[in-house]
C-alpha cells in the first residue's frame, strides 16, 4: 500500500514543482494559489507512505537506500513548507520540490532490492542517528541554497539592473535569515546524529571505529560546521564568503556520504 | 437603452479646467442626483479624480446635452469647455470605461488607484439609485476586465517614480521596512520626498543631519526625527540602514574608508545608500564593497524608465485582454437584446397554432375530450419542434454577435413574417375555444 501512496506523492510533487515554476518564474497568480495546496498534499501523502513503509518493513528504521531517499525527500519538503509558511516565499520551491520529486521517483517505481542485512541496524539509537543526520543534510542544502540566492540577489542589486528575470528572488534579509537558521538547525541535528552514531559504533565495534574514514570525515565535517557558525555569527559573514563556506561544508557532506563505499563500520552487511 | 460617456481628462484639458470641474467626495452623491434629473437620463454615474471628470449615462431616445449640464452645475462657459470634451457612444463608451478602470487611460499607466475610484463612484451612484440594470452590467463588466488585467499582466507590479523605486529597492534588501532607520543628509526636496515615502511605507525612525543645524532641527520636528550634528556624521552614519544624501557639497562626503568603517561597525549588515545629490556625495567606488548598495539619481531614474517600458509592454497584453472582455460584454448584451425576439417568435407561432385550431373548430366538435387533448398536445409538439432549430440558431447568432443572422431569422420566422397567415386572436383564445368544445360535448 505504501508504494501506492509514494506514487501519488511523486505525482503531486511533480505537479507542485510545475506550479512552483509557474508561480515563481512566471508570477502567475493561478499557479501561486495551486503550489502550496499541491505541496502540502504531496507532503501529507508522502508522510503516510513513509510511516506505512517503516512500520511494515523495519520497525521505524529507514535502512534501505529507497527508504533513506524517501525520508530525505520528506525532510526537504518539510523544510520547504516551514520556510514558505514562515517567510511567505515560494522561491525555494523551484529547487526543493523538484529535488523531492527526483528523490521520491526511484523508490516509487518499485520495492527496494538492496537493504542492509546486519542485525546491528535494528539498534534503538539508529533511528535517531539516521533521522538527525538526514535532517542535517536537508538543512544544509537549504542553507547553501539561501546563500547562493543571496549572492545572486546581491549581484543583481549591485549591477543596478531592472528586476527582469530575477525578480522572483526573495529579499536579501529573508535569505540571510533562512541561511542562518537552517545552518543552526543543521548543526544541532548533526551533533545529535553524530552522538547517536558514536554510541552505536562504540557498542558494536569498540574504540577502533575512529580509524574508519567515514567516521573521521564526519567529525571533520562537524568541526568545519562549528567554525562556519562561529565565523558567521561573529563576523556577520554574508554573500560570497558565506557561499564559499557553505559550499565547502556541502562538498564535505557529499564526501561523507560517498565514504560509505570505503567504510568498514558503516557497511552493515550480514556477518 | 443607449450609452453616452462625456468627459475630459489630463490629455484633453489643462489642470486649471480640471480643477474647476473636480467634485469633492462629499458632493458626489448630490451631483449624481442632479445628473439623474437631467432630461433624458435614465441611469448615471460621475467619475471625478484629479486627472479626469467623466459623466456616464444611459438614455432611451434623445441624447442628453451633457456639456450643458456641466455648464449649469459648474458655471464653466460651454464654449471654452467644448474643445476639451470627448464624447463616446455605445461600444466606444464601453471600451473607454473598460480602459479607464484597467488603468490603461491613466497618466501613469498601471497605477492602482483608479479602479478604487471607479468603484467608489459606482457605490455612491448605486446608493442614490442612479444605477439600473444597464449600468450595473456595464460596471461589473469593467470591474471584471480590470481584475483580469491586474491578475494576468504585470502592469502594476513595478515602480515608475524615483521615490517608489527607492522604496522597492529597500524592500529587496531588507524585506520589510519595519523598524529600519533612515538617515537624511542634507535637506533637499527630493531627499525629503524619498524619506517621507520610506516613512509612509513603515520605516521605523528618521535621523537628520544638515550643515545648517537649525534646518535639521526644523525637519526633525516635521518628521518627528532626531538630529545628528554634521560633524558627527561619519561617526554615527552606521546607525542608519538607509542613508539618503542630497547636500550641495562639491566633494564626496562618503568615501570607501568611511563605508568600510560603517560595515565593520554594523558587522556587515547591509546598508542602502541613495545619493540624490548632483554633484554626487558618495564615491561610486563604495558600491564595490560587499553589503553596501549605492544608487545615485541616474541609477534610480534608469530603473524607473526600465520599469515604465515594462509597463508599456504589459499594456499591450492588457489591451488584448480588454478586447476579449469587450467582446464578451457585447455578446452578453446582444444575447440579452435577443430575448424580446425569442418571445415574439414564440408568441407568433402560438398565435398561428390557435388560429389553425379555430379554423378547424367545426370539424373538431365531434371529438371526445381525450381526443381534443391529443390534438392540443400534437399541435403544441409540432410547434415546439418547428421552433427548436430557429431558436437555437438565434441564440447562437446572438452569442457570436452575428446581427445579419439575427435579422434573417427574425424576418423569416418573426411575427411580421407570419402575420399574414394568422388571424388576429386574443391571447389564450384557443384555450377558451377548446374548453367551450369540451363543455358542449359534456
**CATH-wise, what's the superfamily of the largest domain in chain B?**
Glutamyl-tRNA reductase, N-terminal domain
Main beta sheet strand tally, sense and closure of chain B: 6 strands, parallel
What class, by secondary structure content of chain A?
mainly alpha
Q: What is the architecture of the largest domain in chain B at the second tier of CATH? A: 2-Layer Sandwich
Concise summary:
Chain A has 271 residues and is mainly α. Chain A has 2 domains: 1-115; 116-271. Helix content of chain A is 76%, strand content 0%.
Describe the fold and architecture.
The complex is a heterodimer of chains A (271) and B (442). Chain A has 271 residues and is mostly helical. In chain A, 76% of the residues lie in helices and 0% in strands. Chain A has helices at residues 2-24, 29-58, 65-87, 93-109, 124-159, 172-204, 213-235, 239-258. The longest helix of chain A has 36 residues, at 124-159. Chain B folds into three domains: 2-152, Beta Polymerase, domain 2 (2-Layer Sandwich), CATH 3.30.460.30; 162-304, 3-Layer(aba) Sandwich (Rossmann fold), CATH 3.40.50; 338-441, no CATH class. Chain B is built from 19 helices and ten strands. In chain B, the strands form two sheets. A six-stranded parallel beta sheet of chain B has the order 7-6-5-8-9-10. A four-stranded antiparallel beta sheet of chain B has the order 2-3-1-4. The A-B interface holds A 27, 29, 153-154, 157-158, 160, 162-163, 169-174, 235-241 and B 151-152, 154, 157-158, 169, 171-175, 266-270, 287, 290-291, 293, 295, 299, 302-303, 306-307, 310.
Topology:
The complex is a heterodimer of chains A (271) and B (442).
Chain A: H1 2-24, H2 29-58, H3 65-87, H4 93-109, H5 124-159, H6 172-204, H7 213-235, H8 239-258
Chain B: E1 2-9, H1 15-21, H2 28-36, E2 41-48, E3 52-59, H3 66-74, H4 78-81, E4 86-89, H5 90-101, H6 113-127, H7 133-152, H8 162-174, E5 181-185, H9 189-200, E6 205-209, H10 213-223, E7 226-227, H11 233-236, E8 242-245, H12 256-265, E9 271-275, E10 292-296, H13 297-337, H14 339-359, H15 361-364, H16 369-399, H17 403-413, H18 415-418, H19 429-441
Parallel strand pairs in B: 5-6, 5-8, 6-7, 8-9, 9-10
Antiparallel strand pairs in B: 1-3, 1-4, 2-3
Helix pairs in contact in B: 2-6, 5-7, 5-13, 7-13, 8-9, 13-16, 14-16, 14-19, 16-17
Amino acid at each position: 500500500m505504501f508504494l501506492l501512496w509514494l506514487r501519488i506523492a511523486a505525482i503531486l510533487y511533480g505537479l507542485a514543482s510545475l506550479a512552483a515554476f509557474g508561480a515563481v518564474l512566471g508570477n502567475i497568480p493561478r499557479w501561486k494559489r495551486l503550489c502550496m495546496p499541491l505541496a502540502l498534499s504531496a507532503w501529507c501523502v508522502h508522510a503516510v507512505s513513509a510511516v506505512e513503509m517503516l512500520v511494515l518493513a523495519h520497525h521505524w528504521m529507514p535502512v534501505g537506500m529507497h527508504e533513506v531517499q524517501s525520508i530525505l525527500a520528506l525532510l526537504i519538503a518539510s523544510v520547504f513548507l516551514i520556510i514558505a509558511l514562515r517567510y511567505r516565499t515560494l522561491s525555494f520551491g523551484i529547487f526543493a520540490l523538484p529535488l523531492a520529486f527526483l528523490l521520491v521517483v526511484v523508490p516509487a517505481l518499485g520495492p527496494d532490492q538492496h537493504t542492509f542485512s546486519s542485525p546491528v541496524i535494528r539498534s534503538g539509537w539508529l533511528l535517531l542517528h539516521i533521522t538527525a543526520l538526514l535532517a542535517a543534510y536537508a538543512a544544509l542544502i537549504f542553507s547553501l541554497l539561501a546563500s547562493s540566492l543571496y549572492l545572486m540577489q546581491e549581484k543583481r542589486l549591485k549591477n543596478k539592473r531592472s528586476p527582469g528575470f530575477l525578480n522572483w528572488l526573495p529579499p536579501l534579509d529573508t535569505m540571510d535569515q533562512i541561511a542562518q537558521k537552517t545552518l543552526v538547525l543543521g548543526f544541532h541535528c548533526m551533533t545529535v546524529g553524530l552522538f547517536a552514531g558514536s554510541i552505536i559504533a562504540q557498542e558494536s565495534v569498540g574504540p577502533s571505529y575512529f580509524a574508519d574514514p567515514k567516521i573521521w570525515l564526519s567529525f571533520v565535517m562537524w568541526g568545519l560546521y562549528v567554525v562556519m557558525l562561529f565565523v558567521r555569527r561573529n563576523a556577520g559573514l554574508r554573500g560570497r564568503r558565506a557561499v564559499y563556506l557553505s559550499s565547502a561544508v556541502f562538498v564535505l557532506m557529499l564526501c561523507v556520504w560517498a565514504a560509505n563505499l570505503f567504510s568498514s563500520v558503516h557497511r552493515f552487511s550480514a556477518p | 437603452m443607449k450609452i453616452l460617456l462625456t468627459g475630459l481628462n489630463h490629455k484633453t484639458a489643462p489642470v486649471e479646467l480640471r480643477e474647476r470641474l473636480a467634485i469633492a467626495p462629499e458632493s458626489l452623491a448630490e451631483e449624481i442626483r442632479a445628473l439623474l434629473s437631467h432630461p433624458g437620463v435614465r441611469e448615471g454615474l460621475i467619475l471625478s479624480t484629479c486627472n479626469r471628470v467623466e459623466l456616464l449615462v444611459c438614455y432611451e431616445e434623445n441624447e442628453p446635452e451633457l456639456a450643458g449640464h456641466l455648464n449649469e452645475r459648474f458655471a464653466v462657459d460651454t464654449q471654452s469647455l467644448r474643445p476639451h470634451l470627448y464624447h463616446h457612444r455605445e461600444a466606444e463608451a464601453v471600451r473607454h470605461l473598460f480602459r479607464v478602470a484597467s488603468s490603461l487611460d491613466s497618466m501613469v499607466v498601471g497605477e492602482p488607484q483608479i479602479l478604487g475610484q471607479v468603484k467608489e463612484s459606482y457605490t455612491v451612484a448605486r446608493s442614490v439609485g442612479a444605477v439600473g440594470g444597464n449600468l450595473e452590467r456595464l460596471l461589473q463588466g469593467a470591474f471584471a476586465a480590470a481584475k483580469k488585467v491586474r491578475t494576468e499582466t504585470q502592469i502594476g507590479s513595478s515602480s515608475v517614480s524615483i521615490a517608489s523605486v527607492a522604496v522597492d529597492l529597500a524592500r529587496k534588501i531588507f524585506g520589510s521596512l519595519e523598524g529600519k532607520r533612515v538617515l537624511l543628509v542634507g535637506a533637499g526636496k527630493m531627499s525629503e520626498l524619498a524619506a517621507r515615502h520610506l516613512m509612509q511605507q513603515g520605516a521605523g525612525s528618521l535621523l537628520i543631519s544638515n550643515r545648517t543645524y537649525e534646518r535639521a532641527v526644523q525637519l526633525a520636528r516635521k518628521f518627528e526625527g532626531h538630529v545628528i550634528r554634521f560633524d558627527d556624521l561619519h561617526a554615527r552614519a552606521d546607525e542608519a540602514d538607509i542613508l539618503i544624501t542630497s547636500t550641495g557639497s562639491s566633494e564626496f562626503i562618503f568615501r570607501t574608508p568611511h563605508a568600510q568603517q560603517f560595515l565593520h561597525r554594523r558587522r556587515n549588515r547591509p546598508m542602502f545608500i541613495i545619493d540624490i545629490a548632483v554633484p554626487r556625495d558618495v564615491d561610486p567606488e563604495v558600491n564595490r564593497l560587499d553589503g553596501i548598495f549605492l544608487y545615485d539619481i541616474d541609477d534610480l531614474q534608469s530603473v524607473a524608465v526600465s520599469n515604465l517600458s515594462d509597463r508599456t509592454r504589459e499594456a499591450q497584453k492588457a489591451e488584448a485582454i480588454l478586447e476579449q472582455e469587450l467582446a464578451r460584454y457585447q455578446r452578453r448584451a446582444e444575447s440579452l437584446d435577443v430575448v424580446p425576439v425569442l418571445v415574439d417568435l414564440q408568441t407568433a407561432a402560438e398565435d398561428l397554432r390557435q388560429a389553425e385550431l379555430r379554423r378547424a373548430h367545426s370539424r373538431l366538435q365531434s371529438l371526445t375530450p381525450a381526443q381534443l387533448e391529443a390534438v392540443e398536445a400534437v399541435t403544441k409538439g409540432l410547434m415546439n419542434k418547428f421552433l427548436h432549430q430557429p431558436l437555437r440558431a438565434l441564440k447562437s447568432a446572438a452569442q457570436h454577435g452575428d446581427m445579419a443572422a439575427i435579422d434573417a431569422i427574425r424576418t423569416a420566422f418573426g411575427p411580421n413574417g407570419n402575420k399574414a397567415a394568422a388571424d388576429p386572436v386574443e391571447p389564450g383564445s384557443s384555450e377558451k375555444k377548446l374548453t367551450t368544445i369540451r363543455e358542449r360535448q359534456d
